Amino acid sequence: MDWNISKAPALNCELEVPGDKSISHRSVMLGSLADGPCVVRGFLPGEDCLSTMEAFRALGVDIERPAPSTLIIHGTGGRFIPPGAAIDCGNSGTTMRLLSGILAAQPFQTRLIGDASLSKRPMKRIIEPLSLMGAHIHAEGAQDRPPLRVEGGGLHGIDYVSPVASAQIKSAVLLAGLFASGNTSVTEPHLSRDHTERMFEFFGIPLKREGLTVTIQGGSRPLPRDFRVPGDVSSAAFWLVAAAAHPGARLRVNRVGLNPSRTGLLGTLARMGARVREFEHSNLGEPFGTIEIEGASLKATRIGGKEIPNVIDELPILSVAAALAEGTTIISDAAELRVKETDRLAAIASHLKAMGVPVVEKPDGLEITGGQPLHGARLDSLGDHRIAMAFAIAGLFAEGETVITGTDCVNTSYPGFYKLLQQVSANRGDQEPLIIRLEEEGNE
Ligand code: S3P
Question: Is 52 in the pocket of ligand 1 (CB under 6 A)?
């Protein structure tokens, strides 16, 4: 389906976003590894997380789904059965990379496949450390690309120094470390999202953190515990930027995850001139709360260094914020964007140019000169959910019509995005605030 988007008035609303994608994946994994049942509420019913759920079903875990966002996982204590066929990870790099860590320790062979986009993504980054632990992983594609054949076996702990700040690498090694003899540690160059570490602790797995190093002891298993997934701050990011860049706009996002390794965009938007406040309401393994934002005339900023892993998934929408801000925003140290669902640096540069924004593309970043009116354009998602959503938000600010094509990919992380876009863009700033709650059992 194509999306047709026109210029909209300032946002005035209060909303909730679906469950966090990273945390939903991990809740299925930890629940499956536990020795007993776990109830997960607030699970993201997006295609990526459903791929993870189906993978564990194929490995013999009984997972009930009494409602779209509720799972009852009957964990098997880390004992799995060989799947009858290849496991299809769909579009999800998180599924393939984290699952490889668990499968690396199982006494059978598994083949992991993915869609065209996933089949182009680099897997050497997990094959290398898992092989050092004793696993046998063969990439069938050129240059260590999927499909993967994982032949599990006895693993031993390693001290791994990762060249990239990547939660997927860190998590694959730590999950394998649960099954390895001795200790396993991972050191990363900057802190990447720490959901795996927090969930290990919440599920009773002892863990030591020292600076950028995290260490676990082999042989631990998660205890069966119920878990609630907070709303995804990366999904909230689209609405936060739509409000931040529009003077007079007001937005409150409720029940959203506030893990500090994920909320870097709030600091970035505040630096650009938006008024941002966050309130933590609870912390059940992961902090939850409310974000309030008021729009302003944004000004340019610099985004780079250790801030990058914290905003890695928000760089497409922050680039749209940059296009709406006065001055030249410089994004650097972001070469990782080239190996996401698409080459995001190239996609952002070409789409912003199509909307009339001066952009210089660098090997590891972008220079975006904002402040001039955007004009509508016909833009393809390139199969990347965050490109589709970021440019849909850009369309709310553009003169003339913006058409986004190839939008099915948005179901990987944010089912319901377009419906909400239509609702919020119809609500004028001078009306009562529009209040949107997710109609889901997970919200009681
Ligand atoms: C994720 C980690 C990030 C992020 C991805 C989800 C995770 O990838 O971009 O959307 O759930 O661990 P990297 O760790 O490879 O940067």
Answer: no
